[in-house]
Amino acid sequence: MAPRKSKTDPQILEMPPQKMAVVTGKGAPEKVFAELMPALYGSVYTLKFDLKKKGLPTFKVSGLRARYPDAHLVPMEAWTHIIGLPVPDDTTSLPKKVAGVEVKLETWDYGTVAQILHLGAYNQEQANIERLHKFIEDNGYKIAGFHEEEYLTRPDAKVPKTIIRYPIKKR
């Protein structure tokens, strides 16, 4: 495996499991995100401030992630979205902030992953997705899980930064 030349080159790495606060929805991304983000962020920030009030160690709210298990199978308007925010490993429950939206605790397993940093609009990701797929194949691996994106910037950033990631295993 050749060394990475720049931060936008594909890479293979090991990632530990991550406890996540998770919401799920179905539909076009802009609709689903608008509906679910208040519940997800509300729960996670309330958890953070409850810990702080109790004098317990707190955490940085970061790294919104989304998994798209059927993005390659159905039109965008019918996508399933599994959207999560990392929370501390010892979290056992989440405060509910928005009626009608369930925020669940899950552990997302990773292990060996391949990922690439995409700079630019979400609708311009396809070339980097194809580049990552080729990199996975060329290095003797196959995709072994869902397409995942980790959003490093806000959607309205001048240059959005998104990590595109797949769990992989040797062929």
Count of spatially separate domains: 2
Contiguous uncertain segments of 5+ residues:
none
Helix content: 10-25%
Secondary-structure element order, N to C: EEHEEEEHEEE
> What profile does the largest beta sheet have?
9 strands, antiparallel
Separation of the first and last Cα atoms = 15 Å
Q: What is the radius of gyration computed over CA atoms, rounded to a whole number of angstroms?
A: 17 Å
Q: Provide the structure class.
A: alpha+beta
Count the strands?
9
Indicate the proportion of strand residues: 25-35%
Mean pLDDT: 93
Account of the protein in words:
This protein has two domains: 1-16 and 111-171, Regulatory factor, effector binding domain (Multidrug-efflux Transporter 1 Regulator Bmrr, Chain A); 18-109, no CATH class. The chain has helices at residues 29-53, 126-138; strands at residues 11-15, 18-26, 64-68, 80-86, 104-108, 111-119, 141-143, 147-151, 161-170. Strands 1, 2, 3, 4, 5, 6, 7, 8 and 9 form a nine-stranded antiparallel β-sheet that branches. The chain is α+β, with helices and mostly antiparallel strands and 171 residues long. The mean pLDDT is 93. It starts with 10 loop residues before the first strand and ends with a strand. It is 22% helix and 34% strand.
SSE diagram, text form:
Blueprint: E1 11-15, E2 18-26, H1 29-53, E3 64-68, E4 80-86, E5 104-108, E6 111-119, H2 126-138, E7 141-143, E8 147-151, E9 161-170
Antiparallel strand pairs: 1-6, 2-4, 2-5, 3-4, 3-8, 6-9, 7-9, 8-9
